[in-house]
Design goal:
6-stranded antiparallel barrel; 28% strand; 6-stranded antiparallel beta barrel; Thrombin, subunit H; mainly beta; disordered N terminus; globular; binds 4-(aminomethyl)benzoic acid
């Protein structure tokens, strides 16, 4: 089902963005992703960098139109999963009301802010068959406060060390069978050795784990995991962003850990200056 891997692309964001049309592509029904099995409720004030991606036109207004998660990494810069921007998710023709919902714990409420997305840049090296390079950058039309921004863990950061405690956040499926949360939830997990995901996802049938571009996280006994609807949301360790919810086989299964987009690899692709909180794109 998922094929071998691809190359990683090191094109600067500004150039790549200029070269691409950045359409808000389209997609399919709510076949999107969800999060957090085995988690607990949290208020968004404890993780203000966790945002919901929304399109009411496509997903309806009930849960504020939420269909994926996102992470604020600069006042007007949000990361999400590339697969959240796929036409299978957003439908075709593309949605025109893509917004980021910030500061809203309960999607049934109207607390917080809804900020229209101005530009979408999908990693051109994203491979939908292997899920390698699963990230996209959204530029917001209004800035969020610096207090909403989380720092990213660069290559070599100890936060990536297997055994490190990590937390994933989202409004996704809490059961694995389509019970989407309307209030934000979090689950405590651990960074797992790459060998766990290499064993779980050795090849096409279940997907292929690629250590350079992905992070393996979960619990050896299962139970706690991201799930459908959580995609694009944050995996945080030691106060820094290490992953974006990307894929996995089912949710919370003991031998099928969650797979996350590796943030240090994404920083390399974006040529993100670790000394600053905005990408070179804005320089
Ligand atoms: C999904 O479909 C998805 N258990 C996200 C994360 C995981 C599985 C599926 C990991 O978006």
């Amino acid at each position: 089902m998922r094929r071998p891997l691809v190359r990683a692309l090191t094109r600067p964001l500004a150039l790549a963005a200029a070269a691409m049309a950045i359409p808000l592509v389209s997609a399919s029904p709510a076949a999107s992703d969800g999060v957090v099995v085995g988690g607990f409720p949290v208020d968004v004030s404890v993780s203000p960098w966790t945002v919901a991606l929304s399109s009411r036109d496509r997903f309806g207004g009930m849960r504020s139109g939420q269909f994926c998660g996102g992470v604020v990494v600069g006042p007007a810069t949000v990361l999400t999963a590339a697969h959240c921007m796929a036409k299978e998710v957003l439908g075709s023709p593309r949605v025109t009301d893509l917004t980021v919902v910030a500061g809203r714990t309960d999607l049934y409420s109207d607390v917080g802010r809804e900020i229209p997305v101005g530009e979408v840049w999908v990693n051109p090296a994203y491979d939908s068959s292997s899920n390698s390079g699963d990230f996209a950058v959204l530029k917001l039309t209004e800035a969020l406060p610096q207090s909403s921004v989380i720092g990213m863990a660069a290559a070599g950061d100890p936060a990536y060390t297997p055994g490190t405690e990590a937390t994933v956040y989202g409004w996704g499926d809490t059961t694995g069978i389509g019970s989407y949360a309307h209030t934000l939830r979090a689950a405590r997990l651990h960074v797992l050795p790459d060998s766990h995901c290499e064993a779980a996802y050795p090849g096409p049938a279940e997907g292929t784990y690629e250590a350079e571009t992905m992070v393996c996280a979960g619990e050896v006994r299962g139970g706690r995991d991201a799930c459908q609807g959580d995609s694009g949301g944050p995996l945080v360790a030691q106060g820094r962003l290490i992953g974006l919810v990307s894929w996995g086989s089912g949710c919370g299964r003991p031998t099928s850990p969650g797979v996350y987009t590796r943030v240090s690899d994404l920083m390399r692709v974006l040529r993100w200056d670790t000394g600053s909180r905005e990408s070179n794109e804005t320089a």
